[in-house]
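Entries read chain and fold; for instance:
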Amino acid sequence: MLSSIASTVSVRNVLRRFRRNPQGSAAVEFALVAPLFFALLFAIIETATVFFASQVLETITQDSARVIQTGQAMMPGGISPTQTAALTQAQFKTYVCNQIPALFSCAKLYVDVESSPSSWPVTISSQIDGSGNFIDNMQYNTGGPCDLVFVRLFYQWPLYVTGLGYNISTLSGNKRLLSASAAFRNEPYNGACS
C-alpha cells in the first residue's frame, strides 16, 4: 500500500513539474496547428496548379484553333486549293499534343471540333454525365470557308488533396475536368465565302 501512495505522489510531482516547464510548449502548439496549416498549404498549391494548367490548356486551344481558322487543317477532301495540310482527327490531336508542355499527358487529352454553316447559336452538350463520368463523344468537323467553328480541348486532371476535406473534383475518381474552348468563323481561305 505504501508503494501505491508513493507512486501516486511521484506521478503528481512529475505532472506538476511538466506543467511548470515551458520548454515543450512550442512543440505541443505546433502539433496542434500543423495539420491545419499543411492542409491549407496543400489546398492552395493544388488550386494554383489547377488554375495554371487551365490557363496553359486555354493557350494551347487558341494556338491550335488558328490552324483550323486559316484552313490549314481542313478535312480531307476539302474545297480549298490554298490549304497547306489536310489533317485528320488523329493528326490534329498529334499537332495539339506537340504543343503540350510536360505538365500534361497526351493520352488524357480530348479534342472536339464542331462546325456549323449557319449562324449562332450552336448547341454544345456537357461532357459530364449524372454520375460524374466523362462522356467521350468527340467530333472532328473543321467546316469550310466562313463556317462557324467551335474547338474544345478537355483534360482529366488528377487531384490529390481531396482527402483533407477540400474537394474541387468535377469527375468521379478525384479528377477535375479542365476544358478550354475557342469559337470563331473560318477565314475565306478559298477567296470567297459561300
User: Anything to note?
Assistant: The CA atoms of residues 41 and 81 lie 56 Å apart. Strands lie at 109-116, 148-158, 175-185. Helices lie at 2-20, 25-69, 89-99.
